[in-house]
Amino acid sequence: MRKNIAIIMGGYSSEVEISLKSGQVVYQNISKEIYNIFKVHILKDKWVLVDDFENEFPINKHDFSAEIKGEKINFDCVFNAIHGHPGEDGTILAYFELIGLKHTSAPFYQMALTFNKRDCLSVVKQYGIKTAKSYFLNEGDTINVDEIIARVGLPCFVKPNNAGSSFGISKAKTASEMIPSIEKAFKEDSQILIEAFLDGPEITIGVFEYKGKIKVLPMTEIVTENDFFDYEAKYLGKSQEITPARISPETHRKLEKIAAHVYQILNMSGFSRSEYILVNDEPYFLEMNTVPGLTNASIIPQQAEAAGISLSELFHNAIEMALNKNS
What is the pTM of this model? Predict the structure, then answer.
């Protein structure tokens, strides 16, 4: 009997439109002959199952079921395609774990930890993973620009602590740009992270569970036309994404080992995409995305293709890994 799979998409953050696109790509690439597939929009004002004719059926939050023409639909597994809150930060996954519903992401605590950039960095540092010098601010804290610059230098990156798709990030090149950059970041989150600029190529690496083992995908080098890999560079064609990355075999081996180690350190499962900067061929870890983009413009699909893994195989594997997890 075919399993019922809910693809959740949307969310409550600035990434809602990107998530809806990712979810649609997942929907289009999962075999309807193997699974019964349903699109579920998780939005601030409604949770609804959406059919191919855009008809909406409310989700019963008691057990995450839906009713279509008098037939109750219960799900066997949830495919998580929500970037940001409440999918990538673990919030909705805690709910699924409470009601005993399997999902394709890591457990909710791991998701919350990796979504919080400061806390994630504090964990990996303990294992000797190199990171940029950083400064942390909560909304309402006294802002001492001289103290920040003394810690991280200029230029530096000012970013929301809990956000994705480069929303709210600025590259501050002068002291006068610091306050506007901080104000921009606080529009996205009540916590912000200010990091030293690392001069070197940016490498992004997909790591996930594949057939029961940790798999590191071919790496991608990011060459952006903009100051950094911002929203325009990610989604509007303002960058080159070169897969495989133009790095030496020795550097590749080093990055592959570190990427797999970080995945294990953080007790991850499911998808991840981590960002590194190479400074004199030494990798510096920036952050991990646990619901990476899955649109046609996204990096994980490119890396999977380079590894000879189709999108259907990628998504089917995620579902089977989730279904086979112990309850």
Answer: 0.89
